[in-house]
Amino acid sequence: MAPTSTPQTPFGRVLTAMVTPFTADGALDLDGAQRLAAHLVDAGNDGLVVNGTTGESPTTSDAEKAQLVRAVVEAVGDRAFVVAGAGTNDTRHSLELARAAQDAGAHGLLAVTPYYSKPPQEGLLRHFTAIADATDLPVMLYDIPGRSGVPINTETMVRLAEHPRIVANKDAKGDLGRASWAIARSGLAWYSGDDMLNLPLLSVGAVGFVSVVGHVVTPELRALLDAHLNGDVTKATEIHQKLLPVFTGMFRTQGVITTKAALDLQGLPAGPLRLPLVDLSPEETEQLKRDLAAGGVQL
Description:
Blueprint: E1 14-17, H1 30-42, E2 47-50, H2 62-76, E3 81-85, H3 91-103, E4 108-112, H4 121-134, E5 139-143, H5 145-148, H6 154-160, E6 166-171, H7 176-186, E7 189-192, H8 198-203, E8 208-211, H9 214-229, H10 233-249, H11 255-265, H12 282-294
Parallel strand pairs: 1-2, 1-8, 2-3, 3-4, 4-5, 5-6, 6-7, 7-8
């Protein structure tokens, strides 16, 4: 049974885009995934996104994706939303992943803009609509033109929001003006997908975060959100500024790389990365330690 959702917060407010733990030999570590999921929910996450970019979805098989969803739902699905990444640049494949995620018990789907292909807006409209039609699950769009090469334009957002199962957007566009218009016109629940902009996006109408740094600072993100919701702008700003070294440090290179390094430093399940991603160098690890320490993270 999934946690209770509302139209305003269909997936809760604080979610972490979870890494996929692997064993030393590079196999899927389902036990580690369950332990990490429990740790993140205990820390204050309302939900977890699995099989996303941070979950190394380009390098996991369809079978592994389904196994991971099933394991995480088993571990925390009674107290947190489990949202499964199902988006690819192949609509037919995305539909297969969406149905498999539903069969594995996911509570929702994350659908990224088709990457590399650079489809027109009509193609995006049909792609996301097909995913939303494929299952009974609520869908969170994922707008990240820096990776996909194509933005979801505001007019397209407004049209997609008419679908009863397209209920939210994860915003990694980095454009507060466009976000403001899209939030106002679409009525979608808006989640920050760019940790540095968590607070600014709240100020223009976002309801929460899908975070990478939530692996190490979920309580602080929760405190920032609560301060904002309670009208304490000064406190929210103080927390935001305290976390700046973490936001910066976790994205000096690809976020999965630094996140797995940070989890390793804390003795939490993570394991190696799959190529083409590679581990931090010793020098980069020392820099990460300095960044996290500057942001108050205990290692």
